[in-house]
Design goal:
11% strand; alpha/beta; 302 residues; homodimer
Chain lengths: 302, 302
């Protein structure tokens, strides 16, 4: 799945240890932006953080999320690399002032969880845009969420297109490696299809479980269910009970992939239901065994 | 949901601190039986463990899971209380030798995760049987799985029937409290309905997700999904990738409850799918918000 980068070694000279580190701008200092700011400063990079208002700026400064925190976009003019660590909806509808503030010679990358729609917008807005998605936990959010080593050992997906400047991609890769992430290069469509299956479909599967239990008509059973729910239930429903606005947004942005996944999911669930309904217990056990075997092939599931 | 126990205070005198602790037999020293043996011994109770073969007995003795470990059932004759910590299938089809070895005056209780079918079998086999279900984690299994404090703060469900001897129930309640569990009394049908929703339905919902991803026809996407799967995916699929034999068994034993849950689940998932399909994003976000609100009302989900 890795897209070979022919120019990687030639371009690497731009980022050898003897070169001074690039000056990085981070727009948005939430979980991803803030954590990135902390790690890059620890690696002696100079980081300019840009946030929306002075209250947030104050808290970001208190947490030392960047070398300098501004509410003004003007400082981006001095940056070699700008990371757009913005929520998906703002990334897809960027303010004109932000687009105008980005120097044309700087490398610009995002951190959005859906890639094809982001590239469709940003490749027309900036000549050196690189699509990127660091796959780090998203339970925490906001300017207090930044933490060291968030990206360590986690995948950092890069989705080059024929329009991607190879030098620009090398610089983003260098940044990802600097925070100890594992770079995975693939195309945006493959990323979005995979993300539909492992990130976006689970949100709906998990939320439907919470909603189905709400339908229990017997008040005693409903109350007992709440009292007896164990860690297994908590795990199965975690992503379905998460940030609703983000869940809606990724589903909307990755709609076709999610619908494709839902159709397959529905077919598999129906098979299990038919086995239970007909009392075909060997078939059910075989299916559950297969599910268990499959699970061990996934990263983070071992 | 708590069934008032009119005789509880009167019978409590039988188990006051001045009374010597009852002699307990535990048949089966897996996760539940072994953990119980460790905690009860720490409370100065005498525990006889009975296992199937000498190899297991040897390992149970090495781990000090009971004061004495036998492969012979004869020792149960001296016990005041016998805990049947057996897998559900053996509990529902108990060997005649086990039934014969249980003294009629002893209290007998189980730890099975489905209660009505167990009571249907055991109330005809023993006059002082008490249906019980300690809700403790089941990821580990076998004679090496026993651990201290497994039950601390966890629900220990008791399901009395009109045939339950009140003194027998008080003794089982005393044992549960001795290992710091929280006793919840309810009827078997309500327990089984609640368990279908929070324990057994999630297994199928979660397994179907693993099976659906297996159906991905694009090898690059399938491989990328395995590589990028994060902690959210690991959590959502944990119970579906667990012990297949146990998953089948609880589904078979609690079939009607599971089928009822599956029907409601399917209806809710279809609503979400229709919202995605028709692009009704406000409706989707509202449903996800509702799911998130519901989740906070469940124990272990805060």
């Amino acid at each position: 799945m890795t897209v070979p980068s022919a120019s990687a070694s030639a371009s690497a000279s731009a980022v050898t240890p003897t070169t001074p580190p690039p000056k990085v701008g981070i727009v948005g200092l939430g979980l991803i932006g803030g954590s990135l700011g902390l790690d890059l400063q620890a690696a002696d990079w100079t980081v300019l953080g840009v946030v929306q208002n002075e209250t947030t700026a104050c808290r970001a400064r208190e947490s030392c999320l960047a070398s300098r925190v501004d509410t003004d976009l003007a400082g981006l003019a001095e940056c070699d690399l700008v990371l757009l660590a913005l929520p998906l909806d703002r990334l897809l509808n960027p303010p004109a002032a932000l687009v105008e503030a980005l120097p044309p010679e700087a490398v610009v990358a995002d951190v959005g969880s859906v890639k094809a729609p982001v590239l469709a917008v940003w490749e027309t807005l900036h000549p050196r845009f690189v699509g990127a998605h660091p796959m780090a936990g998203t339970a925490a959010a906001g300017v207090e969420a930044g933490q060291r080593h968030l990206f360590r050992g986690r995948p950092w997906v890069l989705t080059p297109t024929p329009r991607t400047d190879p030098d620009a991609m090398v610089l983003v890769q260098h940044l990802a490696e600097r925070v100890e992430a594992q770079v995975v290069k693939t195309d945006a469509a493959a990323h979005d299809s995979a993300a539909a299956l492992i990130s976006h479909l689970p949100i709906l599967v998990s939320a439907a479980l919470l909603l189905a239990i709400e339908d229990e008509p017997d008040a005693e059973v409903a109350s007992l269910a709440r009292e007896l729910a164990s860690s297994g239930f908590a795990d199965t429903t975690r992503v379905g009970g998460g940030n609703a606005a983000l869940g809606m947004l990724v589903t909307r942005t990755n709609r076709l992939g999610v619908l494709k996944g839902l159709r397959r999911y529905r077919a598999r669930l129906q098979e299990l239901e038919l086995a239970v309904s007909a009392g075909r217990w060997t078939e059910l056990q075989t299916a559950l065994e297969k599910a268990g075997e499959r699970r061990t092939s996934f990263r983070s599931c071992c």
